[in-house]
Design a protein that fits this description.
The structure holds 2 protein chains of 2 kinds. Chain A is an all-alpha fold. Chain A folds into 2 domains: 46 residues; 137 residues, no CATH class. Chain A contains 11 helices and no strands. In chain A, helix 4 crosses helix 9 and helix 6 crosses helix 9. Chain B is α/β, with parallel strands linked by helices. In chain B, helix 1 runs parallel beside helix 14, helix 5 packs across helix 14 and helix 6 crosses helix 13. Chain B is globular, with a radius of gyration of 22 Å. Chain B starts with 13 loop residues before the first strand and ends in a 6-residue tail after the last helix. The chains are: A mainly alpha, B alpha/beta. At the A-B interface, helix 8, helix 9 and helix 10 of A face helix 2, helix 6, strand 5, helix 11 and helix 12 of B.
């Protein structure tokens, strides 16, 4: 039962992937957990900033501007980055030609629907993206009145399939904001979404993890504790 | 590294063909090949390795990287047999080499003595087909120990006053304590309960060439990149392949067990990746395809000799399905807990394992755990936020920013009573992508299961209260329509009229056909079935080896 040969079946690039952002880990801990990994850890590097893609795969540029404006009201930019900075529009654009191709129709029909509400509520404003934040919120309020029920099957597998337009954009915006930035789906640019929710960018963590386990002395039987 | 892997031809009559490479199939493959037998494992899913695993939530949860795909394999659901079933995703199971053990939470509770003898202890329960197992805890104890040492379970023996007797301590100390574990432990003790370190099938120390847990936080539903999670893929399949006698054949979708004119199994018929059909010949057939696909395969294998489905003279193949009852309560705390780091669970309690029906007014029992098992998208778009939380805009953003590192879930896990009407059967209309009848699930919880789930969940809320949660809420307890634990559908027993397999996992009807997985269960246990599936598999391997060596499987 060897305890030191565990690296042989894990490719090196995998280790590199896993050790990104692992610079804060102690070498002693890493050696204890995964004896052959210390050298990989020394090569740890941060997520590399990537430029936004030059063109869209699904949207026309004016459609993209409208969808980005909606996403930016769902997760607005304020003191911290929002959907815009996370490149959510590029995530949605790619989603609609990959895993979410069945939502293409929802977007094709949803954008004119927004246009119609806009014309009715704010005649004179030509595009959603040209409306004020208050006007945009009023339109989304009108669209978002039906709230789907979270059931056990949806809890861990949320998705936008056969949801109305607003729910679809909402889900795609959240997914594009919080997807693993290492994935090839273009969302969560530079990990800004994870930063907002307080998730460290790494994929290896050394305890203690949080406020309560930091000074926790370890498990003791009840009788010992009472003494 | 792969050059010496054995490959058989379908026409080679091997000793065993095993259908499924998951929690049970992986162990049977390892045990039987180690014991000198020639084995082919037919797995319907792909052969993925650690390098294929991903933290991409879309790939894993929406594109079903590791699981059954609802477009290829749709299913239907209905509550009762008199309804027409409607298409609706009703189950998730692992569909890759390693099966469901790739993506489980890894809570590895042993069953207790009571789980095997409950019918005798509590008597008949109206509306339920509850019976005792033909084996006892003592029969299975050595095999639980084997799971802990060979597959790899971290834990602390003697920490729970309710634990059944054990012959050996755990091979490794418990995993680190998470902040939600600390909070759960302190609150539960305040309430006079006995929380203890969770036994988990995740390595806390390097072992057998596998790394210890790196706490990446993508655990439930994800495959482990460093082999720390004790899946069959990480722990059993490599040992089986190393014998040079076991071939794992992925992308092989078995749809029929073939018989000869004397009613003996001669092999398994499957589609390969190109939908070509082959018959893998074998001296004996073992089905470990899970509690849904095992009965489905028997029903699909109906023939002149077995018009109601193979090995179904009892008529109960697919029936007595149990899903485990339970609930989820959640709380938000002031402190930054960061429970997104690490495996899901570090503390559990078993004080409610055996409730007194006279006192509580219903049958059942269960356990509670504190966890955080949600990845970022799941959390924000799925089930992480309070029901009254804003759903978009600045307040939504502020809520996810505050809550993600401060939310705790308390899961309750409990018994399900067996009912004959609850079942997997073949849908009369819907077909899968291979043109085979789709699974139809029929399920309506026994009223006691619902009462138990509410009762346990209330205790979860009480613990959140005692822990000082600033906000708490719960999912409504409703009749279940979604299955992860697939139990009881080919139950074990000594009477061929009321059971499908005997205590050796041999079908009563076909002497060289064995079934071993969640379908073998007689009772549901308290919500953590995989440990027992694996102990049964180790035991079945011993029994099947003895039968084979005694010449009982010869034609």
């Amino acid at each position: 039962m060897s305890e030191t040969n565990c690296s042989s079946s894990v490719p090196f690039d995998r280790r590199t992937f896993l050790t990104r952002g692992a610079a804060g880990l102690s070498a002693a801990w890493l050696t204890a957990q995964w004896p052959a990994m210390v050298s990989a850890a020394t090569h740890a590097h941060a997520v590399v900033a990537s430029p936004n893609p030059a063109k869209f795969e699904f949207f026309a540029p004016e459609e993209a501007a409208e969808v980005e404006a909606i996403a930016s009201r769902i997760i607005p930019s304020d003191e911290t980055p929002g959907a815009k900075e996370a490149g959510v529009i590029y995530f949605i654009d790619r989603a609609l030609v990959t895993f979410a191709a069945d939502s293409q129709k929802t977007y094709r029909e949803g954008l004119p629907e927004i246009q119609a509400i806009l014309a009715e509520k704010f005649p004179g404003v030509k595009k959603f993206s040209a409306a004020t934040a208050e006007q945009q919120d009023a339109i989304l309020e009108a669209l978002s009145n039906s709230k789907p029920k979270i059931t056990a099957s949806r809890r861990n597998r949320p998705n936008a399939s056969s949801q109305p337009f607003f729910e679809t954009v909402r889900y795609h915006t959240i997914a594009g904001f919080l997807i693993d930035p290492e994935s090839d789906r273009r969302g969560n640019k530079d990990g800004v979404g994870w930063k907002v929710i307080g998730r460290d960018p790494g994929h290896i963590f050394q305890p203690p993890f949080g406020a309560l386990d930091k000074d926790y002395p370890g498990w003791q039987p009840v009788s010992a504790e009472k003494k | 590294m792969t050059a010496d892997k054995v490959q058989y031809q379908p026409s080679d009559e091997v000793d065993f063909v095993i259908i499924g490479s998951g929690a049970a199939g992986g162990i049977l493959a390892k045990e039987l090949s180690t014991n000198g037998f020639r084995v082919v494992v037919l797995e319907q899913g792909p052969y993925l390795t650690e390098a294929d695993f991903s933290h991409d939530e879309i790939k894993v949860l929406q594109e079903d990287l590791l699981t059954n795909h609802p477009k290829l394999q749709p299913n239907t659901f209905r509550k009762t047999p008199d309804e027409k079933a409607k298409p609706q995703r009703a189950l998730v199971y692992g569909r890759a080499v390693g099966g469901t053990s790739n993506h489980f939470t890894a809570n590895f509770w042993r069953f207790h003595e009571i789980d095997f003898i409950e019918r005798t202890k509590v008597g008949a329960i109206p509306g339920s087909t509850l019976v005792d197992w033909p084996i006892t805890y003592a029969d299975l104890e050595p095999y639980y120990t084997k799971v802990e040492w060979e597959v790899g379970v971290s834990g602390l023996a003697g920490a729970s006053p309710f634990d059944p007797p054990r012959s050996k301590p755990y091979p490794m100390p418990p995993l680190p304590t998470k902040s939600n574990g600390v909070l759960f432990e302190r609150a539960a003790r305040k309430l006079g309960l006995n929380p203890f370190p969770a036994p988990m099938a995740i390595l806390s120390q390097p072992r057998d060439g596998r790394a210890a847990c790196m706490n990446c936080g993508f655990c439930l539903a994800f495959g482990c990149e460093v082999k720390a999670k004790s899946s069959s893929l990480a722990a059993m399949i490599p040992v089986a392949e190393k014998t040079g006698r076991c071939e794992i054949r992925p992308n092989s979708y078995v749809h029929k067990i073939e018989l000869d004119s004397r009613g003996r199994a001669i092999g398994a018929v499957y589609f390969d990746a190109k939908k070509n059909v082959h018959l893998q010949k074998a001296k004996a057939v073992i089905v470990s395809a899970n509690g849904a696909e095992t009965p489905r395969l028997l029903l699909l294998s109906a023939s002149k000799q077995f018009p109601n489905g193979l090995a179904n003279s009892s008529g109960i193949v697919g029936k007595n399905l149990m899903l485990n009852s339970g609930g989820i309560s959640l709380g938000v705390f002031d402190e930054q807990l960061n429970d997104y780091k690490g495996f899901a669970v570090s503390r559990i309690l078993h004080d409610f394992y055996e409730l007194d029906a006279q006192k509580v007014g219903f049958y059942g029992g269960g356990g509670l755990d504190a966890r955080f098992d949600m990845t970022p998208i799941n959390f924000a778009a799925g089930g992480g936020l309070p029901p009254d939380a804003p759903r978009w805009g600045k307040k939504f953003k502020d809520t996810i920013a505050h809550n993600f590192t401060r939310t705790v879930e308390i899961f309750s896990h409990g018994t399900s009573l067996p009912k004959e009407e609850n079942s997997f059967s073949l849908d009369p209309d819907l077909k899968d992508a291979w043109g085979l009848p789709a699974l139809r699930m029929t399920y309506k919880d026994h009223p006691d299961d619902i009462k138990l789930a509410k009762w346990l969940n209330q205790h979860g809320l009480d613990i959140l209260d005692a822990a000082g949660a600033k906000q708490k809420w719960t999912y409504p307890i409703e009749e279940q329509q979604f299955a992860v634990h697939l139990l009881g559908t080919c139950r074990m027993g000594s009477d061929p009229k009321t059971s499908v397999i005997d205590a050796d996992h041999r079908t009563h009807d076909v002497k060289n056909l064995f079934l071993c997985d969640g379908s073998s269960f007689v009772t549901s246990g308290r919500g953590q079935p995989t440990m027992t599936i694996e102990a049964l598999a180790f035991r079945a391997a011993d029994r099947i080896t003895a039968l084979a060596k005694g010449g009982e499987l010869n034609a």
